[in-house]
Amino acid sequence: MNKDNSSLLPGKVALITGASSGIGEASARVFAREGATVVLVARREDRLKSLVEEIRATGAEADYVVADVVRAEDTARAVAHTVRRYGRLDVAFNNAGYGVGRTPLHLMGDDLYDQIMDVNVRGVWNCLRDEIGAMLASGGGAIVNTSSVGGLLATPVAAPYVASKHAVIGLTKAAAAEYAAQGIRVNAVAPGTTRTEVVGAWFAQNPGIEEALHQATPQPRTAEPVEIAEAAAWLCSDRASFVTGATMPVDGGFTMV
Ligand code: NAP
Q: Can you list the domains of the chain with their CATH numbers?
């Protein structure tokens, strides 16, 4: 456990959604390493349980709540559990998201549109409302939402995903503006393509796509989940005390060119 002054999140109580895999799983480890007590949220209980055990074995404190971020009663339960068990909520990383598709817009069904908008927009909305309520009660906090490079520019055959990730940036700015004077900072990270299980499977099914992405990226490689986690941890920390309403690309320069 790391609670000294050199760590980023000493003594903070942090909630992380989408913690059962990928960027959220890496973030759980990074936030705990940086001194936070972490409450992990997702739907796959087996993964959350084993990650909590792994983090506790390092000496850090961790717990999990099985919840679907699309359901307002679930996000309310996750935040209420955190406050009841640990006394307050200091930090939240709203990272749960859904991004399959790669279907031309004119062929895309409403079901996929609804699913993507539900998880990526309503999910962040539900979390923000509950987290801000808890943070106001304890005098402030810091929130980071996961957008995407698809929230900053348009990538083809992913219209609902692009719309949802632009909406995450809108929600981030709106909440940041509304609560800045009350001590709550709200920012976003915009990852480039990141080597998670889903992305690994996508690369395997589409030979050549990884190389094509590298060619479009000034740092010509795929991000590792921990690289997004490190940026989120910093934005959540007091070291980012005058940063709010910002979207930080973590994309090897993809959106710069
Ligand atoms: P991932 O491994 O598929 O992780 C997604 C996480 O979200 C999982 O933990 C999943 O857990 C959770 N989740 C999905 N729907 C949920 C729901 N309804 N309720 C609660 N949890 C839910 O993918 P990832 O790449 O780490 O994605 C994390 C975030 O990064 C997403 O917002 C994604 O859009 C964004 N992003 C990823 C990339 C990339 O290249 N990987 C690039 C840009 C942005 P359960 O299935 O257990 O619920």
A: 13-250 (3.40.50.720)
